[in-house]
Prior knowledge:
Elements: H1 7-73, H2 80-99, H3 104-132, H4 136-144, H5 147-241, H6 243-346, H7 350-450, H8 453-458, H9 460-484
Helix pairs in contact: 1-2, 1-3, 1-5, 1-6, 2-3, 3-4, 3-5, 5-9, 6-7
Amino acid sequence: MNKNWTFGRKLAFGFAVSSTFLIAIGVAAYWSIYVLIGTASSVNHTQKVLEHVTALVSQMKDAETGQRGYLLTGDPAYLEPFQAAATGTPTVLAEMRSLTVDNPGQQARIGQAEALVTAKFNELKRTIDLRKSGHADEAMKIVLSGEGKKVMDSLRAVTEQISREERDLLSKREADADATSSSAKMTIVVGTVLCLLFVIAAGFTITRSLTDRLGMAVGHVQSSSAELQAAATQQASGAREQASAMSEISTTISELGVTSRQIAESAQRVAQIAEQTAGAARSGEGTVERGQESIAGIRRQTDLVVSHMLDLGRKSQEIGAVLDIVSELAEQTNILAINATIEASGAGEAGRRFAVVAEEIRKLADRVAASTKGIRIQIDDVRGAVNTTVMATESGAKAVDLGARQFAEVALSFKQISDLVSTTTEAVREIELSTKQQATAADQVRIAVSDVAQTTQETEASSTQTLQTASQLAGLSMDLRRLVHPQAV
Length: 489
């Protein structure tokens, strides 16, 4: 900063630069939030695609289940899942194509899935029509030929490729979101530190500059005071000749003495009130500090709430993983049950194979039970995290109440200060009245001083020197005033 700048300009410069830092930090934070919102939208879009893929596979399984139930029993009620799948599958495929319109690779895979779905429905419809026409054996032969299983395996492979592509996109978008969040945090932290360092440096510089300039002015004042003292010594000889006139002045001085005593009493009252005001201000300062401690407590509680909520999110993800395992086991159990039923219809040697299938079903049931137990454990953990979060939130509320009470005390303290200031104003008015009385006495002093005019001529030379010194003091006073109020000069 320029050394010739006024104190006000230096302060304005410091505030301007600090505000610039704050604006830059705010813009960076806003941009990071905007990018995070966009990334979250992309993640949600990917989740929708994955949900539609799961729905497609599930509907195809329902269709196959309905077909095999009808082939085994001949009951048309088993065809309801088949009919529902036939109606819902085209809608799911259309939504998948709409969601991935910007991804040529996914569009190609969806086309493959459509062809496989059409082929599977053709195979299912053909067997159903044969069963309706009374050719159940031919329908079972088609089922046992493995044609439908090959189509389903191919469809699963295609849907797995679609899911893998979306999961890769999901991982990439989540990584982008983490990177953006980290960048925003770093920008805010670094900007805040730089702003704080600048404010500290500016404060130190301004304080040092003001101290130096005031020090120089005080030095000049001291020099001028020495010259005034020398001039006063020269005027002492003329004071002897003024002794006769001072007798008249003494009476007036007595009146001034009475008035001065009144001023002294008022000043004493002002001093007492000032002490009380200072005490109230100190009390207010202590209250503010306690309020700050309460706010710090609120922040710690808030951080604890955030930590537990993150823990709750992780537990929820683990529950999702366990549910995926349960879904997979349920799917395999269903298929094995249907195959076991088909094998049982053959009787004879096929009965042995039925035993093998039954054993597989038992194993899968064990896995389902184990997964269910894992779900129960995870749910208990989630409940514990939720309870902890509730407790932390209650503690935060208590801290807020404490902070509110502290600031209420601050308001009361400043009310006391206001009352004391009013009393001080009254004392100042009394001082003003006493000053008017002194003005009347000063007129009497002026009459007496006229008798001293002849002696004043003898002190003219020293008065000239005193005037010059006074002019220097006036200039220094202007400098000091310019440091604080440049426009008032």
